[in-house]
Amino acid sequence: MLNHNINSVISVIPVKNFEEALDWYKSLFGRDPDVVPMEGIAEWQIVENAWIQVGIDPDRAGNTTVVVGVNDVEAQRKICLDANLSIGEIEEYPGLIKIAEISDPEGNKIAFVQDISSNPDH
């Protein structure tokens, strides 16, 4: 079902140690948050109408996975390595996707996924 009423998505990543998470996500995105609506919450706009929010929520911290679509997973992996962030190797599911995963200090997972289903070279 396609819902034409939906116009944005915010992925919420719960953490216990906000200051440590803030520093880590600044490194991941290469910049300060776009919005800090209140103490203990920071938000980055990653593409038009798509945001990642990091916020204090000790009961749920470390149990979240966010999937981020990228044009080039190899380039994204290099960006992470250049920022001194440990990221897994690229896995390929032939004819479908390439994926590389990274975890924040609390264990929340970010999966960078490149769709290769329409690329005949893969």
Gyration radius from CA atoms, angstroms: 15 Å
Structural class: alpha/beta
Q: Major sheet, described briefly? A: 4 strands, mixed
Helix amount: 10-25%
Shape: globular
Kindly, what is the distance between the CA atoms of the first and last residues, rounded to a whole number of angstroms?
Answer: 29 Å
Sheet with most strands: strand arrangement: 1-4-3-2
Q: Element order, helices and strands?
A: EHEEEEHEEE
- Beta-strand percent range: 35-45%
Overall mean pLDDT: 94
The poorly predicted ranges are none
Count of DSSP-assigned helices = 2
- Strand element count: 8
Ordered list of secondary-structure elements with their pairings:
Elements: E1 9-15, H1 18-29, E2 35-38, E3 41-47, E4 50-56, E5 65-69, H2 73-82, E6 91-93, E7 97-103, E8 109-115
Parallel strand pairs: 1-4, 5-8
Antiparallel strand pairs: 2-3, 3-4, 6-7, 7-8
In summary, what is this structure?
By secondary structure, this protein is an alpha/beta fold. The chain has helices at 18-29, 73-82, and strands at 9-15, 35-38, 41-47, 50-56, 65-69, 91-93, 97-103, 109-115. It has a four-stranded mixed beta sheet with strand order 1-4-3-2, with helices on one face. Strands 5-8-7-6 form a four-stranded mixed beta sheet, with helices on one face.
